[in-house]
Amino acid sequence: MTFAANGPGEHGRSVPTSPKDEAAVKEGFRLASFNQHASDLVSFERTIPDSRPPRCRDKSFDYSSLPKMSVIICFTEESWSTLLRSVHSVLNRTPPELLEEIILVDDFSQRGHLHAKLDNYLTRLPKVTLIRLPSRQGLIRARLRAIEIARGPVLTFLDSHVECNVGWAEPLLQRISHNRRVIVAPVIDAISSRDFSYIPISANQRGGFNWAMLFKWMPVPNYEKSRTGGDPTAPVRTPTIAGGLFAIHQRFFRSLGFYDPGLDIWGSENLELSFKAWMCGGSMEMIPCSRVGHVYRSTQPYSFPGGNVKVFMRNNLRVANVWMDGYVNLFYLMKPELRNEPFGDISSRVELRRRLKCHDFKWYLENVIPELNIPSLQLVASGEVRQSNL
Ligand code: UDP
Ligand code: MN
């Protein structure tokens, strides 16, 4: 397939679709929960705007002093064009000296293009390995499988619908080369699910969470801004990460017991990693000079064996019961229906935490996210108030 240099979506522009494409657009949304039709019109190697703070361009890196990375991309039922644009953006925008390999993990996809057609296409790309899981495992165990074969000292995880921006890899690797116990995340720009335009995002937010165990973007507090001295290129310490896109030293990840393999399909593994990274002697940062675009979407197009709410809540219960000490009761306060829900055996994860001699959750709240509102557990009653219809 060839694409014009000024073709659809070049320079990160939106892809216009005409009314006659309405049926194709609708079908694309049904399959992918984004405008797959628009994505299919865009080159795998399109240009996107450099969204870094301008001063990032002045930084230079000595590649020979940086560790190499294995990029790991797990996918299930991903669209052809978004998957390959993700892979090409890694190959085109990562210095070859720093890229050990790309490991793709197919989490038991059924869509036709992800079988022989994909095998065939990948034979012409360097450094790419594809593993196929014989049954659906979910994102977390798919990643654990990739880690088993990854060779790079640094593991970089990406979603299967991303576009890495210019210079994205170097500042991540540089931070890890200075400090092996820091987990780093790029600033995640948005790729529109409606028209595939590339939308740079303000770096003025960082990861937090609420007591319903939901990840939340929160404004960077003033104490953190003063720590970075107003330098727009300085790493921003973050209490949690969104989880899809980050880099970690393989040895640090191993020392943290990787992920809880009891987590299913999707969700909460980002909080598990965030809590234990901080509580067990490491830290997390967002790196403004590293930018990666991600297609945000409001629903997930793939099946969720066990039911999406049930699986996600079970994952939350596992993580909360291992890491949050008495504060788990705040989660139960928000979700009283989960009080007696089973979440499987967590003894090996509790043992891991004990063995690592981690700080407690109170320490994490006080030192890592002091701005988080902590409701009192001494409540006399809780519930909701409604106006009656008189
Ligand atoms: N994924 C997977 N197996 C699953 C669920 C998700 O491999 O059972 C992959 C998915 O294809 C994507 C990544 O995990 O590359 C993150 O999922 P998604 O993009 O749906 O999460 P979101 O970005 O919406 O949080
Ligand atoms: Mn995603």
UniProtKB/TrEMBL annotation:
Q: Which Gene3D superfamilies match?
A: Spore Coat Polysaccharide Biosynthesis Protein SpsA, Chain A
Give compartment(s): Golgi apparatus membrane
Q: Name one GO cellular component term.
A: Golgi membrane
Q: In which pathway does it act?
A: Protein modification; protein glycosylation
Q: What is its main location?
A: Golgi
Supply the alphabetized keyword list.
Answer: Disulfide bond, Glycosyltransferase, Golgi apparatus, Lectin, Manganese, Membrane, Metal-binding, Signal-anchor, Transferase, Transmembrane, Transmembrane helix
Per UniProt, residues of the Glycosyltransferase 2-like domain are 70-251
* Keyword field contains Transferase: yes
Cofactor(s) it depends on: Mn(2+)
What is the membrane topology here? Single-pass type II membrane protein
Sorted alphabetically, which InterPro entries does this protein's record hold? GalNAc-T (IPR045885), Glyco_trans_2-like (IPR001173), Nucleotide-diphossugar_trans (IPR029044)
Recall the GO molecular function terms of this protein's record.
carbohydrate binding; metal ion binding; polypeptide N-acetylgalactosaminyltransferase activity
Q: Provide one Gene Ontology biological process annotation.
A: protein O-linked glycosylation
Q: CDD domains of this UniProt entry?
A: pp-GalNAc-T
Stretch list, region Disordered = 1-21
Query: So which domain of life are we looking at?
Result: Eukaryota
UniProt record similarity statement: Belongs to the glycosyltransferase 2 family. GalNAc-T subfamily.
Q: Which PANTHER family match?
A: N-ACETYLGALACTOSAMINYLTRANSFERASE, POLYPEPTIDE N-ACETYLGALACTOSAMINYLTRANSFERASE 5
In its UniProt entry, what is this protein called? Glycosyltransferase 2-like domain-containing protein
